[in-house]
Amino acid sequence: MVDSEDNIRLNRNQLEVNEPVGSNGRVSRACGCDFRPSWHNGRVAVLRLFAQARESAGTNRLELPGSTVGEILDQASGKFGESFNAVLEISNVWLNGEPAERESAVTDGDEVAVLPPVSGG
What we know:
There is one protein chain. By secondary structure, the chain is of the alpha+beta class. It has one domain (about 10-115): Beta-grasp domain (Ubiquitin-like (UB roll)), CATH 3.10.20.30. It contains three helices and seven strands. The protein has helices at about 50-55, 70-80, 80-90, and strands at about 10, 15, 45-50, 60-65, 90-95, 100, 110-115. The strands form two sheets. The protein has a five-stranded mixed sheet with strand order 4-3-7-5-6. A two-stranded antiparallel ribbon has the order 1-2. A hairpin with a 2-residue loop joins strand 1 (about 10) and strand 2. Helix 1 (about 50-55) packs antiparallel against helix 3 (about 80-90). The protein is globular and about 35 Å long.
């Protein structure tokens, strides 16, 4: 085990970086660790994708850095391409269970959900 000034420890083949959790008490664990790359602003949102958005992206969940809902969606658009963009244009977007605008601020661990329209009876 190594403990340095940066508070980094190697334990069981896993890199752990001790960082404070977000205001909602959640810490990103997509890689099984608390590591945050130096380029991100300290805010990582969980993007949840449903129905056609999930199908066009090929995943139902992704963690992306950003300070607004719009920044999160722009990153997803760049990553997933035109079919995802077409679904995004007709979808509702929610932040932590409430309708959201592109300008809505995102804090560490917030959940941004893309909800396409549902058809059926």
